[in-house]
Amino acid sequence: MAIIERPASDTLTYSDMDAAVTATSSYGYLRRPVETTGWRSWAFTVDHKKIGIMYGVAAMVFFVIGGLEAGLIRLQLAGPEGTVLSADKYNQMFTMHATTMVFLFVMPMAAAFANYFIPLQIGARDVAFPRLNALSFWVFIFGGVFLNTSWFLGGGADGGWFMYAPNSDTPFSPSNGVDFWGLGLQIVGIASLVGAINLITTVLNMRAPGMSLMKMPIFTWMAFVTQMLLLFAIPVITVALFLLMFQRSYDATFFSVEAGADPLLWQHLFWIFGHPEVYIIVLPSFGIISEVLPVFSKKPLFGYPFVVFSGAAIGFVGWGVWAHHMFASGLGPISVAVFSVSTMAIAVPTGVKIINWTLTMWGGKLWFTTAMLFAVGLIVNFTIGGLSGVTHAVAPSDTQQTDTYYIVAHFHYVIFGGGVLGLFAGFYYWWPKIFGKCLNERLGKWNFWLMMIGMNMTFGPMHIIGLQGQPRRMYQWTEARAGEGFFNLGFWNLVATIGTFILGVGILVFLYNAIFQHRKEPAAPIDPWDARSLEWLTTSPPKPHNFDRTPTVHALDEVFHRKYEDVGEGDQHEYVLRTSLEDLVLEEERHADAHIHLPAPSYWPIVLAFALPIMAYGVIYTAWLIALGAAIAIAAMFGWALEPADAEPSDFDPPATGGESSSKELANV
Amino acid sequence: MITTGSKFLIGASVMAFVATLVYGLGQGGVLGTVGLASATAGLIGLATLNAILRDSNVFSDDDAPVETSSAAQHAPASSIWPLGFALGGVVVAVGLISYQPIVVIGLVALIATGGEWAVQAWAERASGNVDHNAEVRSRLVNPLEYPVGGAAAIGIIVFAFSRVMLWLSKTNTVVAFSVVAAVVVAIGFAIAYRPKIGIGTMGGVVAVGAVAVVAAGALAGLDGERDIPTFETTSVWQEEAILHPEEYRAGAEEGEHPAEPICESPEEFPEADEDVSQTVASKSGSYQVFLTEDGTLAFDVPGPVEQGPAGMVIPRSNPTNVIFRNESNEHRRLSLDLGTETVQIDEEDAVVRHQICTTLIEPGGAQLLTVEAPQPTFAVDGQVNPNGPGGEAGDGFWFYVPGVDTAKLELIVP
Amino acid sequence: MRDSETGTSLTDVNLPNARGRTMGFAALAAAGLFVAGCAQNAPQDTTDPAGESAQMIYDLSWPIFAIAGIVGVLVISVITFVVIRDRDRGQPIPEQTHGKPILEIGLTILPALILIGVAIPTVGTLMALNDYDDTECVVNVTGQQWWWEFDYPVQDGCGGITEPIVTSGQMVIPADTDVLIRGTSRDVIHSFWIPRLNGKRDMVPGRVHSLKMQADEPGIYAGQCAEFCGLSHANMRMEVVALNDGDFETWKANQLEDYESPIGEQALAGEAAFVANCSRCHQVDGITDADGVPIVSRPDLQVYPGAAPNLTNLMTRNTFAGASWDLIDQDRRDEVWNADPDEFGALYLAGVEDSWFNEIDLREWLRNAPLKKPMYADPLQLDETDGLYRGMPNLALSEDQIDDLLAYLLELK
Fold it and tell me: Which of C72, C119, C229 is the closest to A344 by Cβ?
């Protein structure tokens, strides 16, 4: 366990003997880092909040990279016979755009929120395994950087993010791009898997007293379902990538048709992972807006148990629909019919969520902050994406739409409309919690409207382009097949490209707001939004130990019920503000726990993570690097194990003054 | 000042190194040199570890711990490592005398038990507290024990399980697997319904299971695998007949196999034709060729359209799966004559017939023949195909059945 | 919907009972059409079916689009209503209700019922689309990087074919006939898709996939490989040409005519250049060397998928290089593509004549093929394929040779 209540003295003494050996120094020379400032305090941190912020920053950097790739793709397609990119570069661009956005932006951004807010929402001091938490972050970052170094080492992967065999094999993709892709995603997969185990354990074991599962904040619930999906989905893609690695690097024949293999094997493996991946992408955002909507409607989430169970239902049914990505691949009508029907079935729990969000707002007292705008934007855009999804759950209809821009439109409405907008709602909603300052609301509204207009101009016309028969993944389209009149491809492609740049400007406004404007903003009040859930029951930004006193939970929306009292009678409800959040937090500080103990930082997660890309380069270039990487990994594992449980006693803060017996020992975080 | 333990280990390392040099340069035996070199490396590793860790934090210039932290306050715990170490030594000796690969097992046992022994001995002296010492030990060796032990355990279980599966007959493997899976599920349910079950009980169940698998694996391994037929493909025989005609003729004279090349022979060939598997992995939309009861070849292609009497058409240069179904009353093979090709025999170009065929199929059986024709039919216009129906119609590519003269079917490649 | 007139005539022929629905949808889409005027939509328009299969898909799809549209408008209207009505105007804090289970269950069952209503016709259409029992003509379709080969096996169908016909780029079929496509691939997965005739079907190496296709009227129907298949995926196109029965017989007879060497001097020089430079990969059926021995191409020794387009009767086709470029000039192309169904056959069968020959693209192609269409044809980059090309390499022909070849190729019809 991470949080260990230790006796007041650092020295282990044993009453039956005179010997006194200090436990922390008994492992030789390996000490734990103690820096509280500077780069070391970030590189070696195990604090879930710092790791969450680093996840967020890294994901944002990859978002910009993926966005630049998208911009280049749209520039290439703005007019007929585009020449901005060569065919080869274009293929790399759309492969890496999808890979970056899915694996290096949306998933880690969701991980950022999950890392930061799950412990805060359940009243815990940190996650269950803080060092593993640091490991997953560093593994992710090294995996992502490794993947992107392919740009400088012969070009990125060029087989599409779905990397269908046999087009992914060396004769068809001779550069090392696909190798980088397969190995990079294996590394990133380790990060996700470690993170999933960590967060599942945290949610199951570390909830504050009184917080039953059905009193858990909805974001934590959705993030929990997401981690469960990751736990089962990542091994599948890892197996597929492992086979691909052997196919390409060690002459295996898993996907070689001439050796009797069936290339559809890859498709099954990929989509058994790939479909749950869709829910991995959108569920955290669903959780975020399920927090945001009640706060700004001044009402609890309508049908909380239905939202929870529909999320869980999506988590289960999501495993039974993978072949709807393969309606055109010749599975035979029976399989197609089964998957067609099961795909329609999954629309039901998704519809339940939309209905519940709408009913949450119904009769509320709506306050349109930027966060709320993004949340409402999500409902609208995700509804469009969901309904276009129903049109190709109908398998025969799908055979006309799959692999066209109609599908591109559909999944961008789902992933951007249903995923990314939710993340932006989260930024605006939780920014004051994380940084103690609000994002500028005026810029925020610019940000929202530019993104809304931009995304609908970009992806809306793609419905038309797709139904007019323009396939995906074509580096050029030709005037000869563009048609004329209102539905002509030329006009709508140009509109989509212009939309992309409006969307880009919207995101630049956010970056300006977050990086520059943010500094000029005044300190935010402790309760800027009149919030409802447990993460607000502490200072902003939270102290390293999160809560001065471990809260005891009595209700869903604990903080709301602590603040407000229902003074109405019978069916008449009237809520009055009884205490402000400031007072509640001061109250907590007054009753602070004695001996709060936090895990100390560690050198080893980053060292162990660093070994992985070295081994991966070894697979591509020379086996000696594998040996080097393995040596570093083993050394790091020993370092990890031999590390003392705590920093040196002398590095501890002096006991807090004030209380008689309550001395606070905070490890250096 | 160097501690006693370090002195011993450093000395041992030096001795081992010298021994390696002497033996390696003098005797030059590979195994011995490698063994001694490994011992040197291991000893240097231990010496280094010991020197760095200095018996925990008992620094050599520190007087107090000599009395206070010595394990003298506790009797050493019981240990299995000396036993293992001795056993390893015996195994090495036995291996050197009898069968050298056993030496490797012995060396592994020596290194593993020796290492564990050394670590245990060291850890027991780390401090005066037994629990603390146990934790010290865990922290030092668990990072090695867990991955190595886990990999070894999985490897042993998998290997043992594979021995059992290979020992059972093909049908029984399915039964055995189902039973084992059912037992695992049942135990899982039992545990789930008794959440308070002790960790000892659970460990016991797992241990019994593991021992059972390993024991069964050992027994099955000793008894040997079931009789697994190995097949030579027909192409091996065909190549043999064409590339080494003289040896092939000699073999035929000695009665090892029939005289004709396999694709022209109605008779049974050893290894290629015995116990062939009749399962056909039916991929979607295959072409089919039937040998009918009255000794003619018929065919069927995907789709309802009749292809007329002319023959079966397949695309050029693309491996096409053709299922042969034997509906006659005899064991038969389907052969295909794809005209002539140029091969090198004894570094000279020779023009030979390009034939492929299935193995001998029993009545009612089926087998897949993958056909890839790189040349179009008209490339062999004017060359009479001896396996065609003869005369003018004899050019082109022909399916035929050795032993059934009436069974001819043209393959047309555009 | 290109225009409602075509829509009605189609339904008259095939599905009389669908007429009303189609008309209904036409009315729904009237606004769009009003803006669109009478302009022509893209040739790969998925909402403009021209054959039975595509029509079945369309008849299934549009009501679902309509339902989805209605639901979408409803949901968004409700959200808009709530957003306007319940915005903060100082009203008291609402009741902290956690929901009404009955309402919840009702609102769960409602979408479920709608989806059941959608699922039943879906499965029915799916089975009908995959029923190949009534097909009367078989075409083998083989995809490879980055062109399609079509071969017509010997059969009783298609009005009887006695010798196989091989062509590429354009698949010629008899109109108003159910054609069975038996497709596979020589290298990676491709997808065969003629939007106005049927949905797409992946062509997977090692497997044979079937697809039914029929065109109600003679005409030319555009398609495009729809599964990403590598470098030049965008340049892998195909067209289906439907001819009425008489024209189809003419086309077949022409395809099977014996080869005759050209007469003109330049064309003869071109034939020699072809034999010297092209015939390693490209087959022209019937061409012989000086001794009368047929020249057999061996593309399997030169290119990775083992095939190159058969150029016999090249000039009866309108396109080359994966149907990416036209062999006829722009005016002629417009004429052929926009022809009246009755006149289409004659226009198509005229093939390529000197007066409308699009020499420019073919010349550029012969000059340096990989420059015009990205292909893996750099000899230095072929380690992974043991030196086999993927696509056509740059043959470094002289301008004279190209002139001769063009003269020769123009005779291949």
Answer: C119
Determine contact, residues A140/A58, Cβ cutoff 8 Å. yes
DSSP-H helix ranges across A78-129: 87-99, 107-121
How far apart are the C-alpha atoms of A289 and A356, rounded to whole Å?
Answer: 11
C-alpha closest to that of A476 among C146, B268, B333: C146
Give start and end residues of each alpha helix (H) in A591-665.
604-620, 623-642
DSSP β-ladder status, C147-152 and B366-371: unpaired
Query: Per DSSP, what are the bridge partners of residue A11?
Result: A22
Inter-chain residue contact A487 with C111, CB threshold 8 Å:
no
Q: Give the H or E element holding residue C369.
A: helix C369-372
The mean of the pLDDT values for chain A is: 89
Coil, helix or strand at residue B300: strand
Contact call for residues A52 and A115 (beta carbons, < 8 A): yes
Q: What is the pLDDT of residue A186?
A: 96
Q: Which residue in the set C132, C142, C306 is minimally distant from B374, CB to CB?
A: C306
Inspect the interface and report whether the beta carbons of A352 and C107 lie closer than 8 Å.
yes
Contacts of A362 in chain C (CB under 8 A): 82, 86
Which chain A residues contact residue B57 at CB under 8 A? 21-22, 25-26, 28
- What domains does chain A contain, in order, with CATH numbers? 48-531 (1.20.210.10)
- Interchain contact, C83 vs A399, CB within 8 Å: no
Nearest to C69 by CA among A383, A416, A394: A383
Q: How confident is the model at residue A665 (pLDDT cuts 50, 70, 90)?
A: very low
Residue from C55, C80, C86, C334 whose CB has the most chain A CBs within 10 Å, to mutate: C86
Give a three-class secondary structure readout of C100-159. CHHHHHHHHHHHHHHHHHHHHHHHHHHHHHCCCCCCCEEEEEEEECCEEEEEECCECCCC
Mind telling me how many Å the CA of A260 is from chain B's nearest CA? 10
Distance of alpha carbon A41 from alpha carbon A32, whole angstroms: 12
Q: Do B128 and A634 touch (CB under 8 A)?
A: no
Min Cα–Cα distance to chain A from B371, Å: 12
- What is the distance between the alpha carbons of residues B126 and B137, in angstroms, rounded to a whole number? 9
pLDDT band for B142, please (50, 70, 90 cuts): confident
Top mean pLDDT of A253-257, A349-353, A441-445, C182-186 is at: A441-445
Chain A positions in Cβ-Cβ contact with residue C337 (cut-off 8 Å):
none
Helix (H) or strand (E) holding C242: strand C237-243
Q: From the CA of B355, how many Å to the nearest CA of chain A? A: 19
Give which of A147, A150, A177, A180 is closest to A619, Cα–Cα.
A180
- Give, for A308, the enclosing helix (H) or strand (E): helix A304-317
Torsion of CA A595, A598, A601, A605, to 10 degrees: 150
Q: List chain B domain ranges.
A: 4-72, 81-220, 234-412
The residues, any chain, with a CB within 8 Å of residue A217's CB and separated by 6 or more, are A121, A122, A291, A533, A534, A535, A556
Q: H or E stretch including A231?
A: helix A218-249
Interface test with A, best of B62, B67, B129 (most A CBs within 10 A): B129
Sequence length of chain A is 669
| Arithmetic mean of pLDDT over chain B | 81
Any chains having at least 3 CB pairs less than 8 A from chain B are A, C
- What ipTM was predicted for this assembly? 0.90
* Pair of tokens at residue A200: 């599942």
CA torsion, ordered B301, C167, C244, C193, to nearest 10 deg: 70
CATH annotation of B234-412: 2.60.40.420
Neighbours of B110 (CB within 10 A): 22
